[in-house]
Write a structure and sequence with these properties.
The protein is mainly alpha-helical. 78% of the residues lie in helices and 0% in strands. The protein contains three helices and no strands. Residues 1-80 form the ABC transmembrane type-1 domain.
Length: 80
């Protein structure tokens, strides 16, 4: 946008109003997407930690099996 010629801004799609509205909407969209992903990540991480702690307290052998599946869960979360 900064490297375009002055005439580029004369087009209807590239007017100052349209560009400022697009920048504001894109920033809002990025912020919403990031905050949603961050909150889901924190919720999922805390749920896994609490589940493993409860499992270790009640049945440590079953918790070790659940702990063995943790790398698969992490890889699937990254792939998502």
């Amino acid at each position: 946008m900064l490297r375009n010629e002055v005439g580029w801004f004369d087009e209807e799609d590239n007017s100052a109003d349209t560009l400022s509205m697009r920048l504001a909407n894109d920033a809002t969209f990025v912020r919403a997407a990031f905050s949603n992903r961050l909150s889901i990540f924190i919720q999922d991480t805390s749920a896994v930690i609490v589940a493993l702690l409860i499992g270790l307290l009640l049945q440590w052998r079953v918790a070790l099996v659940a702990l063995a599946t943790l790398p698969v869960l992490i890889l699937s979360a990254i792939a998502q």
